[in-house]
Amino acid sequence: MNNLIKKPKIIKVQSVAQSRLFTIEAVELTFPNGVRRIYERMKSFKRESVMIVAILDDTDILLIQEYAVALENYVLSFPKGLIESGEDTYEAANRELKEEVGFGSKKIQTLGQLTMAPSYFSSEMHILIAEELYREKLEGDEPEPLIIQKWPLDNLLSLLDEPNFRDARNVSALFMVREWLVKQGRLTY
Amino acid sequence: MNNLIKKPKIIKVQSVAQSRLFTIEAVELTFPNGVRRIYERMKSFKRESVMIVAILDDTDILLIQEYAVALENYVLSFPKGLIESGEDTYEAANRELKEEVGFGSKKIQTLGQLTMAPSYFSSEMHILIAEELYREKLEGDEPEPLIIQKWPLDNLLSLLDEPNFRDARNVSALFMVREWLVKQGRLTY
Fold first, then answer.
1. Which residues, including other chains, have CB under 8 Å from residue B141's CB and lie 6 or more apart?
2. Domain residue spans in chain A?
3. Environment class of residue B76 by beta-carbon count within 10 Å: exposed (0-12), middle (13-18) or buried (19+)?
4. Can you state the angle between helices B168-183 and A168-183, rounded to 10 degrees?
5. Do B118 and A33 touch (CB under 8 A)?
6. A-chain residues within 8 Å CB-CB of B65?
7. For residue B76, what is the nearest residue in chain A, using CA coordinates?
8. C-alpha R_g of chain B
9. How far A169 CA lies from chain B's nearest CA (Å)?
10. Pairwise CA distance, residues A44 & A27, whole Å
């Protein structure tokens, strides 16, 4: 991709709506060809997040069932959460693991970064893989205990048949970890 | 996943902020264990969207470069857009293809559905694969002509090395189409 491409010029950024969690901005801009547009986007949280694929005993990965209020249903997801102030990515991943699935990890590595609908959101999610797990539980802010579900490493893609496993970040992470395991010779396609 | 799990009870849904594009709702609910919470979510657009992986000449897939205002940068993406009123998924996909890359397709199939951060958004995106392309251009609402980029089928995963290809929906679609092609014997890992 050509990185010398000329970018639109942002003329004005204005907060147009605000709730406890979200601020919506209207962004007025001029494209290089002179066309003007006003777009809306979410103001950046300025906080990145982590999603962790934890491998238990080299045989299973760990998922949680949590309530997703926009779908009004429970979904299957890898543990995830915001990076707290003062934490690095690995510390955040280890804390979220302890809070959500009751394990810490002695070996956490980064698999990659994902964005989500970058026309509207700028926040970045780090996908990490956690191994060498040990039992340690931290209290999180969950309203109810999360149900933890193991999924066999040797049947990873069958997760895609689950109607409650459709979040694009989770689907991407699943494929990324499979690729990573295959590259190391720990899994075959 | 256990589908008989008892869901939280929604007590009240209230619009708390609104802009031209977005409405934010506060949702008050009680979990089965009695814990009360107020969550925020985006009010549903009531419109689903499509993302199309178009295969040209059985050798390349088609990407567009478009400006993503939340990142304030150009990103690489598969063609995509909202399903218009009266369209089915395939019609929407074909129209978006004509608008964004200047091709129609005689063979469009569904690969799957993705959600995006289902704690906040309920909208669903249909991932489709388009083949047997023919040249036809429709005018879209793009502020500037989109730059179209071909990517070789036999090197699909190298797209993951592009820093501007990180949107989780795009990453998922890339892996999904690769899997689909491998299953048909048209590609090897």
1. none
2. 9-42, 49-183
3. buried
4. 60
5. no
6. 1-2, 5
7. A1
8. 19
9. 5
10. 13
pLDDT digits (tens, 9 = 90+) for B45-82: 778 999 999 999 999 999 999 999 999 999 999 999 99
Q: How far is CA A62 from CA A76, A100, A167, in A?
A: 10, 10, 16
CB B60 within 8 A of CB B152: yes
Instruction: Give chain A's radius of gyration (CA, Å).
Output: 19
A31 DSSP 8-state letter: -
| Among candidates B37, B114, B162 on the partner chain, residue whose Cβ is nearest the Cβ of A166 | B114
CB A150 within 8 A of CB A56: yes
Burial class (CB in 10 A: 0-12, 13-18, 19+), A119: middle
Report d(CA B143, CA A135) in Å as an integer: 54
Q: Each residue of B112-149: pLDDT tens digit?
A: 999 999 999 999 999 999 999 999 999 988 999 899 99
* Pairwise CA distance, residues A22 & A182, whole Å: 40
Q: What are phi and psi of B180, to 5 degrees?
A: -65, -40
A119 closest CB neighbour out of B16, B68, B175: B68
Q: Which two tokens stand for residue B90?
A: 């395939």
Structure tokens at A70: 């926009």
DSSP state of B146: P
ipTM of the complex: 0.96
> Backbone phi, then psi, for A145, in 5-degree steps?
-60, 135
Residue B169, C-beta contacts closer than 8 angstroms, at least 6 positions apart: A116, A117, A168, B51, B80, B114, B116, B125, B127
* A115 secondary structure, DSSP code: B
Question: In CATH, what is the architecture of B49-183?
Answer: Alpha-Beta Complex (3.90)
